[in-house]
Structure formats: structure tokens, C-alpha cells
Amino acid sequence: MCPLSQRIDRSGGRRPARAAWCWVVRLLLAAAFFSVSPARSLAIVNGEEAPHDDHRFDAVGVLVASLPGQPGCAGYVVGTCTLVADNLVITASHCLLRPDGTEWPPGERDFWVRFRRGANGAVTNSFPGGGCSQNYQEIRVTSWARAGNADLAVCTLAAEPFHVEPISVEYRRAASPSDPIVVAGWGFAGECLGGGDPWRLRWAAGTLSSGPQGAMLAINECVFSPCVQCVRSGGGPEGDSFQGWAVPNLHDSGAPVLAETRCPDGSGQLRVIGVVMTPNFAPRALSWHESGLSPRLYSTTPCDRCPADQNDDGVVNIQDVFAYIADFMSGHARADADGVPGLTVQDVFAFLMRFFAGC
Fold it and tell me: What are the C-alpha distances in Å from 227 to residues 90, 143, 176, 179, 222?
């Protein structure tokens, strides 16, 4: 007897449901072969200012707090956020809280998001810039919800920004140590905490640290004392370039930790896998999904890749069936095929439909 479904145990473990799944294996073994194009990851190391003609980071906005009744451009920067749906941004929840970790009393603070690309297409990488003008999109946060078990918050905006494409969330593909990542934020530049030119949109890329990669991504092995010092496991300082790390600074809290997929046409697509909490750690986007919180965030397939390519080898065949069975039995997030928290028989049916549809 083998279990057909597994449900997430909120205590951190998983408990198998009592049902039989052996018949599912027989159905899966009858699958046909389909081919898709392979996808590869691309790593670009060292930080730089985001070019005006680079649309990849348009969705990375500056989170601003202001007094009620004042526009966002009259406020002050509290962090970074990312547009992940038409009118939803994800950030670190501590950016929206008082210094003691409690919520602001109603009406005492308003929050706004400013995007670098204006409604007329003009671009600026600096804040506050020239103040309020048509070159800036300042959109008010109307409501927000946060995760009780992670430093994550999702904010609803009063309107959808123009000329800004959201960056999708990715929680089905687990990040592991040494995976390439990209961080983009509106924090300070410089090697010292809070030092350097502030509030310009910059990005840096590197690899995840070798630390634990459970609910919390280890972004790097760097410390501020008060300046950045990076040390690899078993080695000495990396040097002035900090090559191999994407190092966030002050006000980069809430910035996206991004994985980049190389598409068959040579382009790259970014996916949000986590949110910067400290210079070293980021809670995974999976934490929001597994908590079943609202609004729901969906994991999409990059580059129009076939969602039935379970093992990411670029070909859909019987090996993907075996990969799905292994993922399902181990309770891996990759087996979450229906987008609903928890693994059940509905996920199996969702995968079967994708597999037999031939992409």
C-alpha cells in the first residue's frame, strides 16, 4: 500500500494521507514522448546601476512611507518591493511596521510605491528626483497582508502601473546552495552599511550561500562590521568585488531575490524566489504559498516552457513521470501542480492533464 496524497503539516513536517496511489503509476507509465527546448540559468556577478533601457527591473519599486494626505514623493524610503501581479507588490513585512515591530495606528502612515518608469515611458533611477511629476508613477497602497511565520507582506495597489510588466513568483523550483541569483533594490551603494550613494536602482548577481536553504534562503556569507566582509566556506575574503554574492545594503529590505532562466531565444526571464530580509537572509516566496495566504500568488512557467517537464531536462518523456512521482512522494513543492497549498490527488490529476496535453 502506498499513499496517494500528502498534506502540509504547519509544524514543519508532512503527514501522508491514507490512500492508494499505485493505480496512478500505471496511468503515468502509458504516457507519450514530447520535446521542448532546454532552459539554463545565467549568472552575472558584481553590482551596477540598472540601465534605463533594461526593462527587466521595471517592476522593482521603491516603497515610500508618508503622512496621510501627502503624495509618495513627499515621504521617505522604507524599503524595496516588486510588482508580482497587475496590482500586487511583495516586500518584507518589517518595512511596513513600526520600529518595535507593531503595526502603525490607522491613519498615521500611508504607504506608496514609486516605479522608475513613468506613465509616459520616461525612466529615472533616482529618488526623490525632481519631486512629483508625470515622469513618476506614485501608486498608493490600499491594503496589505503579512505572513505570520515569515518576514513577507503582499500589498494591494490602488491602480495598475502603466508600462510595467510584473515579475512572476517562482516557488515550485527549489533554490539550492551555489544557484545563481540576482538582487535588485533601491538601497545604498558602498561597502559600509548605510554608506555610499542612496536610493538609486541597482542590481547585483552572484550565487546563494552554502547555508541552510529551508524556509530561509542564505543569500551570502557576508557581515557588516560596519563594512562588508565576505568569506567563503573554507576560504578567505573574496576581495573588493565580492564576486559570487549579491550583497544588499540599507533600504534593500523587501528587494526581490531573483532566479534567471535562459530562454531558447537567447533572452532571460526573472522569477522572484525570495525577499531580502537582512544582508544575509531572505524568506522564500514558498512560505507565502504554503501558508495559504490571501491574495494568492501563483508560480508560472518561464519562457513558455512545458509545465510537464518535471526534471527540467528540456524533453518531456517517461522520465518526467518518474520525477513527478519522486517529487510527490517526498512532498516537494515541484509536485504542487494545481497551485493550491498542500499536495493531494488533485495535483496528480493536474500533472496528468499537462502531460497528456502534449504542451
Answer: 28, 36, 27, 25, 10
CB 79 within 8 A of CB 253: yes
Helix, strand or coil, per DSSP, at residue 24 = helix
How confident is the model over 333-340, as a mean pLDDT?
80
**Which amino acid would we find at residue 337?**
A
Give me the count of residues in the chain: 359
Q: Domain 57-157: give its CATH superfamily.
A: Trypsin-like serine proteases (2.40.10.10)
Q: Is there a contact between 320 and 355 (Cβ–Cβ < 8 Å)?
A: yes
Place 97 in a pLDDT band, splitting at 50, 70 and 90.
Answer: very high
Which positions ≥6 away from 119 have C-beta within 8 Å? 134, 137, 161, 162, 163
Mean pLDDT of the chain, nearest integer? 77
Task: Evaluate if residue 285 carries a pLDDT over 50.
Answer: yes
Spatial separation of the C-alpha atoms in residues 17 and 293, rounded to whole Å: 23
Ramachandran area for residue 308 (φ above 0: left; ψ -120 to 50: alpha; else beta)? alpha
Mean pLDDT, to the nearest integer, of 184-205? 85
Phi, psi dihedrals of residue 276, rounded to the nearest 5°: -60, 130
Residue 93 has a CB neighbour count (10 Å cut-off) of: 25
Residues in Cβ contact with 289 at an 8 Å cutoff, skipping those fewer than 6 apart? 169, 171, 296, 297, 299, 333, 336, 341
Q: Could you tell me the residue ranges of all domains in the chain?
A: 6-34+314-357, 57-157
- Average pLDDT of the segment spanning 22-43: 31
Smallest Cα–Cα separation from 251: which of 306, 297, 190?
Answer: 190
User: Cα–Cα distance between 196 and 49 in angstroms, integer?
Assistant: 13
pLDDT at 99 over 80: yes
Taking alpha carbons only, the member of 87, 89, 96, 114 closest to residue 151 is 96
Determine the Cα–Cα distance for residues 81 and 93; give it in Å rounded to an integer.
10
Looking at the chain, the whole-number percentage of residues with pLDDT higher than 70 is: 81
The dihedrals phi and psi of 8, each to the nearest 5 degrees, come to: -70, 130
Residue 358 burial (10 A CB sphere; 0-12, 13-18, 19+): exposed
219-230 pLDDT tens trace: 887 777 777 777
d(CA 67, CA 140): 12
